[in-house]
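Late entry, written up from scratch paper. The run itself happened at the end of the previous shift, but nothing got recorded in the book at the time, so transcribing now.
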Amino acid sequence: MQKLAAELPEGLRDPGFAVLLRRIDESPVFEGNRARVFFRGPETFAAMMEAIDSAREEVLVESYIFKDDQTGRSFRDALSRAVERGAKVRVLADAFGSIATRRAFWKEMRRRGIEVRLFHPVFPHVLLQPFRDHRKILVVDGRISFTGGMNIGDEYGSSLSKHGGPWRDSHIRIEGPASWGIAIVFTEAWDAAGGSRVELPLLAPETGGVPVVVLDSRPFRGTDEMASVMAAIVTAARKRLWITNAYFAPRYRAVELLTRAARRGVDVRLLLPGRSDVSLVRHAGHGHFEALLKGGVRIFEYHAAILHAKTVVVDDHVSVIGSSNLDFRSFHLNAECNVLILDDATAGTLARAYEGDLEKSVEIVPSLWERRSSLHRTGDALARMMGPFL
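Output as recorded:
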């Protein structure tokens, strides 16, 4: 597939790229969508709750973390209002990701008529604990959907000054047929968690609008396809490949693909956290910096706040927004959801945000990186070896 991607005459803009995507992932290219990207928590959550308040039939929520804080309670209240209007509301949260959320919070949701399930609680799923539901999904009436990197919690607002301000993340609102595809993704984990049957209406095909491919994965299904899609994107890139990633602990194959793209003249940039809520993963990423820098990849670390976004923007045309990190866990142990958008306007929005983020970042210069301390080098090497366990 990489050979086919490399031979596309017009790269990612070639009509054959969409055909290649369908061959790899066996997922449709949903047309007829409208898309809007968000970068700040308050605006994202306001749009999500506006969508919930418009619900008439059904609301589906899937979140790795659903906190019992001001943000979580605001969502609970919006979901309760939807129930009062007669909508069926289902909430799926990961049992480990939401471990700090009190049982009383879920109990109150159920009392209000919201159906709640937790993905892989410790009991009776002891042997399944490594496998987590890392998706962030909201679907309203099968027509409006949101996905991206944002969990449901206060860290995206202004209240967490100890983190230097709100976390920097990316999320997308989609209106149109692709929302049906995202609803299908929800039903997979919902069924695995023992939820009641979700009835989805037949999808009416549409044309025009923004083309969207839904890229979902879970352990033992879809992980190879997701990796192959990303490899095809990197291989077909012609001008620039800008990646933002929160937890960067890649496999050697990914490093090879990125350096190969840089050596053929693609402007390859990585925007990574300058500080992280999981510092060990940050150091695991550091273990690959030397090879990346020697291969021509430019690396920037974002210092304005915690960086939690997972996006890719390529050649001003292809964008990927979702929950997948470039680490072992996302590609082998987690259930993830990402969307690939074939649209110049969406890519332009992401590119402008990327340029703004670079102004708040520090570039890792090869000459300085080579002079880091022996202790730093040792820590990076040890963390890199732990990459498959992070």
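The radius of gyration is 20 Å.
(Scratch paper discarded after transcription.)
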